[in-house]
Amino acid sequence: MSTSSASFPPVDRPWISPWTALLDADQRLARAADGTLALAADTPAPCPVTAAALALRAARRDAPRGPTLDGQPLDAATAHATAARWLAQARQPLIAGLAADVDGQRALFRLAAACGAVSDPVGGAAWAEALMALQDRGQFTTTLSEVRERADLLLFLGSTPEARLPSFLRRAGLDGAPSRAAHAGSACPVPAGRKLRVLGAPTGEALAALGATALGATALEGADLGELDLFDALAQLNALAAGRVARDATPALQALAAELQAAQYAVLVYEPSKLPAQGGLLIEAVQRLVGTLNAKGRAASLPLSGHHGLATAHYAHTWLSGLPLRTRVGPLGLEHEPRRHDASRLIATGGADLLLWVAAFGNEPAAPAAAGLPRIALVPPGAPVPEGTGPLLVIPVGTPGLDHAGHLFRSEGTTVLHLPAGDPSELPPVGTVVAAVAEAMAGASAPSSPHAAKAPA
User: Fold this and answer.
1) pTM of the full predicted structure?
2) Topology (CATH) of 128-306
3) What angle do CA 126, 132, 134 make, to 5 degrees?
4) Strand ranges across the sheet with 153-157
5) Distances 279 to 128, 273, 285, 286, 306 between C-alpha atoms, Å
6) CATH number of the domain at 67-124+308-452, please?
7) Fewer CB within 10 Å: C terminus or N terminus of the chain?
């Protein structure tokens, strides 16, 4: 880790954290005496997710910073050539994780097209459910700024977001600060009594602690809403909102339906990754409810996802291929199979014979176990790599927004931000490494089997 103060921005300069899907732009860095980084004491709203990621980075500061093959060091050029040979030899490579910035995603797509790989991101299962719901029914979504300026009722479905998105309540205008609309004297200011409701989950501590704020936000009392089954509750809400009879609806659910109908702007908030199995059916029910409410009033949904570069991977791969993730560039052209191209399924059924794991942020969930497959890991120094018994090539990479500058999409997909390097280092970006591997693969002649590669070529 670089310890030169000259490479570190002043602590009074805002820094954008790459570790949350909302890309919090009000964080500040400080350097300890041992050269490690942490959030500065004067950070106005310190993000616990960012603090934990910085602590992980500090704990791994002594990890090797150069490529290794089965634990043995090798130079970068040899590592790139080895990765190229393995990819060229593989019959069906799998690129998983995809946790990188825009430049990294562009390079990964070109590499996948060159070797016929399947691409599946971190959180791909929940993302695929949401995409299939979009394909089947469509969706009506909103943005953080609209929530902050307009919404008078927020309904959280299945979870509350403070664990993974600690800044959401503040960014959504639930901290009591006046909205821009109020400052500007808008004809549609935020109502004085903004209501918060939770359905199908316990009310989170941060949400419950809001109580009555300067905006008059109140959380619905009673455990019957939190304990309701989401599938049943949304079906009953849809019936009640459409004016039909729902005999099994509890009084609290009937009251919630009346509040949704009376709201000036209701927003239904959910995290696809927190929904139960077959979450796509719930998302379709949410969109059906939004459509019904919009017939006489105004409503929208706000899906909260995109962690670990997932939103960036989705948008980059979609604009480059015309199809979403879990698409393969094969002999028949583009093959989009959101269920068949699940990374864990491909590995478990023998559908992939090489795993390229890309996780540039260092705090991603564990990679799928790769059994006896050859594994290539592009991760920060000391970060976890896929488990397995096959050969393992590790090429350390930098984290966008910290080791190098980069661009990332925010959760709702309407905003892409440039993240300056918070602590520039010699670690290469994912895009640089992948481009070097692709160049080596293009120039390779007769690839050798990766299963036999136990030492540098």
Assistant:
1) 0.87
2) Dimethylsulfoxide Reductase; domain 2 (3.40.228)
3) 105
4) 218-219, 195-199, 153-157, 266-270, 299-303
5) 10, 8, 10, 11, 16
6) 3.40.50.740
7) C
